[in-house]
Amino acid sequence: MNLVDEPWIPCLHQDGATRPASLLDCFVCHDIVSLAVRPHERVALMRLLLCISYAALGIPEDYDAWEAARLRLAAEVPAYLKRWRDTFELFHPQTPFLQVPGLRSASKKEALTPCSKLDFALATGDNSTLFDHAGQAPRAFPPDWLALNLLTFQMFSPGGLIGAVRWGNKTTKKHSSDSPCAPASMLHTLLRRATLQDSIHANLLCEEDLPAYARLGEGWQGRPLWERFPRDLEDSAAIHNATRTFLGRMVPLSRAILLAPDGRTMVLGNGLTFPSFTNASNPFPPEVSATVVLAGKKEKRTLLGAQPSKAIWRQLAALTVNRRADEVGGCAALVHCDPEQGTDLVVAGLAHSQANILDVVESVFHVPGTLFCKDGHQVYEAETERAETLGWQLGAAVEFFRQLEDGGCQNRLRNAEQKSKLLTRLKAWALRLYWTSVETGLSLLWEAVRACGTPAFRAAQLAWSAHLRRSALQAYAQACGNDTERQMRAYVLGRRKLAGMTRTLLEHEERKEEA
Question: How far is the first Cα of the chain from the last one, in angstroms, to the nearest whole number?
Fold first, then answer.
């Protein structure tokens, strides 16, 4: 199967249907609206499409060259793909796409891995079987599935123990590091436009937008992996290009893989080691789609990561800060946002704990232009912080209720771990109710941001504040029972405490804003 002209990428078309497209289709078909894939697959595919664009056109030198690139994509990318067509053949005998030809197991007994390992959601080895109860026999997968999951696995595979394989004359290590898109479970932000071609163009960057990479020295741009594929683990020049240049690591070889033609098994081992922004001993500039934030008391720069328990809108203030060079801020493509019309953002990530996959997350926002202005950004940040504070106050009120209901609960908690778990579950339930209710009124928050600097702002802000207070009180009422006399007393006192805290917070914020 050749990925250049055979369909394998699920795409949404203008007629509303989802049909697979080839790499060539993505650049020449004007009716493709978007990619119809899972969050981490979207990031992987966009990186591939952007890498091909850069390779065909070169990295634009400035804004004028970037504008001209939109018309050049459909004209020049097809010729580039034709020239490198063999390297996009999934089962090519010499240059299989993102695979190591001649790879073999390092053990005397041939050790093959089921291809289902490429999909983080499927049960393979010690992977969770929560949503997948297939038998132990390796399943056969079609070439289009193999291509998409191979690409995604190379970009997002977390580090951990892995089988040893023979690559040339050397045996790979049994421990692997994170793939370039995986460190810190980083969130990836992409700009979205009306068509896939426009989205590709919007996420292209100029050389002047990449100062952190330019400081790497001569040749920092590099070439794609398929143009300079390492012959073996001693090919230092090709390995440097693949791991320490801008284009080389966009489509990485983080795992050494060779697929069997039947689509059932593969040889799998550790691939190349990639430096990372979060690795102090082997640092590298942050990925251009990542968001850099300050964390901890020492305000150490780190990457904003996906948190399954925290909706992405609560982190949007950090995601929409324009990042300059080594400063904190969101994705580099934010320089192409229209300050008047706003923009659509897709934020996606894969959360993991060491080698265990926790969840994949994705949110799509239409961000008004006012959010990119200082005043609008401050309003959004302040209001999300207010929502977070109310959530903390709700938790405190629930804990207060629990203490009163149990009549000396704290003394018994020292000797009963189960009681502590009950309190934790009660608070978690109340917070889930609270945040679910808050999210039903997010339109009120967006109205306040859009109204920033206008006479309508105050009314919009008060409507959002009232919604927050109502959400907190309703969550408390649903989580805390009032059936018995003791419960009723605890419920009333706890609600009074919560109402007082919320009223104090809202009045304090209003006085600050008026001042």
Answer: 66
Residue that has been written with the tokens 């080895």 in this structure: 125
pLDDT of the residue at 130: 45
Element (H, E) at 32: strand 32-35
Residue 503: predicted pLDDT = 81
Place of tokens 């993102």: 98
Report the amino acid identity of residue 303. L
- Burial group, residue 10, by CB count within 10 angstroms (0-12, 13-18, 19+): middle
pLDDT in tens, 60-69: 999 999 999 9
Query: Quick one: DSSP state of residue 2?
Result: B
The two structure tokens encoding residue 412: 């018994």
pLDDT-derived band at 515, boundaries 50, 70, 90: very low
Question: Which pLDDT score, from 0 to 100, does residue 513 have?
Answer: 54
Pick among 1.10.132.100, 3.40.50.2300, 3.40.50.300, 3.40.47.10: CATH of 372-514? 1.10.132.100
According to DSSP H, which parts of 407-456 are helical?
409-413, 417-439, 442-450
Strand, coil or helix: 257: strand
Residue 125 neighbours by CB under 8 Å, 6+ apart: 117
Domain assignments of the chain as residue spans, ordered by start = 104-367, 372-514
**CA 278 from centre of chain:** 16
Amino acid identity for residue 152 in this structure: T
What are the pLDDT digits (tens) for 112-145? 899 999 998 886 655 554 455 555 567 899 999 9
d(CA 156, CA 306): 13
- Residue 155 to residue 271: CA distance in whole angstroms: 12
Give the type of residue at 19. Answer: R
pTM value > 0.85:
yes
Phi-psi region of 83 (alpha: psi -120 to 50; beta: other; left: phi over 0): alpha
